[in-house]
Amino acid sequence: MDVPCVRVDREDGEATRRRLADADLIDDDHEIAVEDGSLYIPVSDPDAVPGDLDVVTRDVPARETQTTPADLLGYDPSYERLGEAALLDEDDPDRARKIADAIVDSDLPLETVLNKASKIKGETRVRDWDVLVGDDTEVVHREYGCEFVLDLAEVYFSPRLATERHRVAEQLTASERAFDMFAGVGPFVVPFASRGAECVGVDVNDTAIEYLRENARRNGVADRITAIADDVRSVAPEYEGWADRIVMNLPHSADEFLESAVTVAGDDCVIHYYDIQHEDDPFGPGERAIRAAAEPAYDVTVETERVVRSYAPHELNVCLDVRLERR
């Protein structure tokens, strides 16, 4: 079967395999092939492979020896993977237990199984979890070459936004100053800093900021990240006119913080504004709110309107990339 693969000289194969594994890019459903002194390593997301690696399409064999949870259950269970953890969303405890047992008994490299035990709640957007397998709710997650440690019971983190975070990070240049108003454990600012940007990350969750500092150290960018545990509305005046780029990933209520965003914005600044709106007009409310906050001090240009994902029936999670240019 033809699948995307990274082609690499055999002597560099193990180092490249480890590099792809650290970025969680290896396609576990297919075998690594060897031919004419080259290794062909199947990858799950060819667009995310670092640009210095050679991606080709190759007929490689399916992995036949791996036992999956579906093989053991007789149906394909629904779960998310985050590092070496499987995240379930099952209302039936017996069904959750059966899925957890099947995950453990399969050949998947997963050591922890957690089941959602509550909705996201509170100002810090955390939820309760039932630990079905493993010791606790702390996990290590790798994303596009960066490593994050976090406790799912103490901080908010969505693995579903990995592609979106990578999209934004690829826009940065090393000379930029980036400000994340709701930074969490650093999934935006750590890759920003890895590209050479000077970053400020603010969050009201003290635990999230502790993990952000740890993640900055893990990824060798602590010298380029200032992590602040506070309400961004209190912090914004200290960074008046500072930012070239602002991330506003608080989609249910980002509009309440636009005045602070305008305070932090420099003379030419891009805001990545996340919103959740009805599918009939997913971008209009956000654009109108930004214009109301920024005009007439700034010229406002919407550069990108992007649907990130479906959020609920008839509701979309969207992003507007908006440039502010001071008049």
From TrEMBL:
GO terms for cellular component: cytoplasm. One of its GO terms (biological process) is tRNA N1-guanine methylation. One of its GO terms (molecular function) is tRNA methyltransferase activity. Keywords: Cytoplasm, Methyltransferase, S-adenosyl-L-methionine, Transferase, tRNA processing. Coiled coil: none annotated. It comes from the Archaea. Residues 79-326 form the SAM-dependent methyltransferase TRM5/TYW2-type domain. Gene3D superfamilies: 3.30.70.2580, Met-10+ protein-like domains, Vaccinia Virus protein VP39. PROSITE patterns: SAM_MT_TRM5_TYW2. This is SAM-dependent methyltransferase.
